[in-house]
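Hi D.,

Good news: the full-assembly prediction came through. Inputs first.
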Amino acid sequence: MTPNTNYQKLKESYLFHHIAQKTGKYLEENPGTKLYRMGIGDVSLPLAPAVITALHEAVDDQAKKATFHGYMPEVGDPELRELIRAFYGTRGVALDLDEVFVSSGASDELGDILDLFGPGQVSMIMEPAYPAYVDANIMTGNSVVHVPAGKENGFLPVPADGEKALAEARAAGEISGGPDLIYICSPNNPTGAVFTKEKLTAWVDWAKEKDAVIIFDAAYEAFIEEDLPHSIYEIPGAKECAVEICSLSKTAGFTGTRLGYTVIPKTLVRAGLALNPMWVRNRTTKTNGVSYIIQKGARAVFTDEGQKQIHQNIAVYKENGRVLTETFDRLGIWYTGGKNAPYIWIQCPGGDSWAFFDRLLHEVQVVGTPGEGFGACGEGYFRFSCFGSPEDTRVAADRLWLLLKEELGK
Amino acid sequence: MTPNTNYQKLKESYLFHHIAQKTGKYLEENPGTKLYRMGIGDVSLPLAPAVITALHEAVDDQAKKATFHGYMPEVGDPELRELIRAFYGTRGVALDLDEVFVSSGASDELGDILDLFGPGQVSMIMEPAYPAYVDANIMTGNSVVHVPAGKENGFLPVPADGEKALAEARAAGEISGGPDLIYICSPNNPTGAVFTKEKLTAWVDWAKEKDAVIIFDAAYEAFIEEDLPHSIYEIPGAKECAVEICSLSKTAGFTGTRLGYTVIPKTLVRAGLALNPMWVRNRTTKTNGVSYIIQKGARAVFTDEGQKQIHQNIAVYKENGRVLTETFDRLGIWYTGGKNAPYIWIQCPGGDSWAFFDRLLHEVQVVGTPGEGFGACGEGYFRFSCFGSPEDTRVAADRLWLLLKEELGK
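Then the structure:
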């Protein structure tokens, strides 16, 4: 037997490995130095008190025969599904209960959802991007078409950029058909850029015209404060062309607690096959549902008290974003994000993103993420995260100001 | 775009739907009647106190910034992996830490593991079997060769049975190559039959000869009390041909709490590709690990106290098995399982398994599972589960004795 040979086509991702190596070496040479870690994509604040209470209650339920929960419905606890459905209602999006699926998190679901499509699809991935989009598609035998974004389009590509990338891939003999799948992450990781209704409408219309399916990653929607779409289903026609994958990881600090949700509208049909019942069949075959304990904890996120508490945490991260973007504004550095997203994507003074990384590490002990790690078009850019502590973020911002103000003429 | 058309090849599973329909109708016609449910595959006893304590501690950890856990390692918490590694040591199986992966449960992993192999594999599934084995393979585009078991081999097929099934599938034009994957569940669901070292050695040798990979489902290993293999790695050579998938669902009552573990030896290599690093890459791409809370709870299972407590629960289920098998012994009914497994698989008096189901429901209000639902060769057999309450199991056994003793000449 021959195992899945697609794994041999994967490129090693050296991004976080290199960062760890470089910071490790620096600390070895400069023992005891404090680093200001502005690169992390993980949250730092604990779970909301309402969630903690619900989790404890759920654990107690599992301790007594009368309240013990065995196998859960594979597609999710009906009470939690109803709360998520109602939450979409507050965004003006009407869903049926059975269009909502509970998952172990967005990253799990972004990989698993490819089961619905089978090998050989042409997947368009807007870059810079979360590296797992590309790898999951390569593993499953799909062709990846990279749609580069840049400063000229505010890191928000339009369908014409997609057409161009497709034409180039066809000319290079890399693909024949397609597009089949279109990945959109908004608010975006790593750029923090957010698609407007108008820009998202263009993609929805294009996907429908091309008979493609949009995989919409809404993991950062809770950070939106302006009038921008939280859900792709705010766009007319999206229920005929999009799957939406969301998560409590960044919304409610569930990165290590694990819970997400996926929406597959019943009106999403391709080649006569409705994707919603296929996903029900997939989940009932390939999972036994998400932990009762975690699902009960997640229910608390969607209560009034839970929403209030999680937004207190989000406000802390947003204040970090304000502190950093204010500094970049004063320095005259071009950036996207920071306002409606927990990431800030700056154009590196000096250009080279790894040189900028080394300089920040060695001169001001600030650690960020070189944009090159998120795709070739990320070179020359740099990601700052808003998930650090407010104290460290303040110091990092001050140090960046002092380091760069003179050369930038401020 | 065309979605995965393999889903159209799936057969609907009517087993549990039919059972629910029939019992529902009976209760409608006989309101208030108590049913003795001996069909359930879910546990009924709560989690062990040591696990509950650890789960509460883990929830408290998530409430404070100093102890909060974000993203966990995708392959599992190192402390838990070490405990599982040490647990295998008590079985005489030496593993490296990085051969152990923590999962959300066996059913999740049994589906996901197929990612390692890609479409077009010839998968041999010994029947009667857990229906998800077949469906997961069909979804992914593999060919399924059903290897029937029966009374003549004690529901434990030998490689010659596999050869015969392969030859028939080849003659029918259903497959060309293979075998690639061989599914073995021991102790078996639904039959409760357990492979001896000798019988398992025959499969390991055959798999190696054929260059195939065994997927060994050890979900019920904790129920073994005789000198029978708990792990396939007790068999020499298995580390060169087998993946083992295990779960705390039945061992520690985690059906609704969700945690399992998978072993992929580093010496498992096919066509020059080592499966262990491929699985690391799969997990780091397609998951963000299992919930910190649940992993901390699972750690308690592997402590001395935890092991003692979970075996107290298992002893309750085993006593149910004793009560039922004693009745079948007195009635002279042929069966497998019940001793080293939580299932008992009886030959139906009268033959037809759905007729026997109806008779038990209507005459003695006992609900079991017709064997036909686990594959064609299950017709004429019937599964009883040992996971019910001791009180109900006692009543069910007494009623079966009274119903059948005269016609069976006792």
